[in-house]
Structure prediction request, 414 residues.
Amino acid sequence: MSTEASSQDDDAGRTVTKPRPVRADAKRSLDALLEAALSVFTTSGVDAPVREIAAKAGVGVGTVYRHFPQRADLVAAVFRREIDACADAAPALAVEHKPGDALALWMHRYTAFLATKRGLATALHSGDPAFDSLPTYFMQRLEPALRTLLDAAATAGEVRTDIAADDLLGAVANLCRQAYEKGPDHARRMVDLLVDGLRYGASTPAS
Amino acid sequence: MSTEASSQDDDAGRTVTKPRPVRADAKRSLDALLEAALSVFTTSGVDAPVREIAAKAGVGVGTVYRHFPQRADLVAAVFRREIDACADAAPALAVEHKPGDALALWMHRYTAFLATKRGLATALHSGDPAFDSLPTYFMQRLEPALRTLLDAAATAGEVRTDIAADDLLGAVANLCRQAYEKGPDHARRMVDLLVDGLRYGASTPAS
DNA sequence: TTATATACGGAACATTGTTCCGTTTTGGCA
DNA sequence: TGCCAAAACGGAACAATGTTCCGTATATAA
Prediction:
């Protein structure tokens, strides 16, 4: 059932419900919580205590559990938000850079997302049902974002056309996973290599 | 400091310590604990409460922490024991079967190990320092075990000679990881396929 | 047999996820 | 504007679990 308030029967006898708008304080709490959670997760990891997040948000624990029935739901919400932010970066980059550059820049944005969210992989494999929808959501949001950039770059003749967006997402994720153990900017070099590989054999094939 | 008991100064003034053997009850507790932990981990996962393991071992929690300062140390000890058991299976199989068969049988033994210990992968990536030595231990024990089988089979002309033991261990581990989502005996089929691949091109090349 | 280091058991403590409920706030309405 | 009911809030209290502490029991050397 969705949020609702007063209800009455219309002239055909059907019950009509007029949704009551979300209260201002509720929205404030939710925003503060998501922001605080992101901050705490980034600095202390996704295992940080709920109390710590609530305190940082200036909110009681009861409020946390009002918005997120389980701790894992809060974690999932933060991850979804980060996925959204990463996906939304694609059109923003597309209007400000040439297609090939936009693609390369977004790949690094994506890499940054992967780097900070290494807790994501652990969470996904924890088996908690609260995370079940995340892999799907991940692909639903990021695949179209990358595909658009890829298509634009291909149309401009700046990259080759035989790579699928989802394959590229997975490949970079794998690159970054093992790059985590290596040096700090190892991931950056590997991704650069990959992007250069995309450019290779486009309009300007090598000798 | 190691286990020790009475100590006295020798004629040069150096303190000499005579190690006292491990007490019988201590060894009993340790064995019972490891056995109980393996059982509980297998049925309830590696997140099972320490109290449950202690109860199953017929031991107090204090005794658990006497042998394993941290919960994670107990988990690591159980994993090490399982790694040992898997490694020790190699020579046992080698004396009872033809080299090629021993290799195939051990690969399934290894697969079974991977299947039941999926909690291992999660534990390894948890970042807990208690698990730091496990990957090294894993390779140190299993690589020689497999290499011996591989060499024997190669010498007998039953498998090709261009595969390294560690690569094979990693490949099968990866096969089993994604096979976990598929059907139940998917892993078995994939591993069979891989072993047949090893046999291919040995003494009896295809047309 | 006795002394003593060693080991044991389990109550008690600390941390953290979750629930409960009395209090406060918000927004529609008279 | 003032009132009221629904919604939201805060935080104490509860439950589960890792960890510590210490009085008691036991094994081993002499």
About this structure: The first helix of chain B runs from residue 24 to 44. The radius of gyration of chain B is 22 Å. DSSP finds nine helices and two strands in chain B.
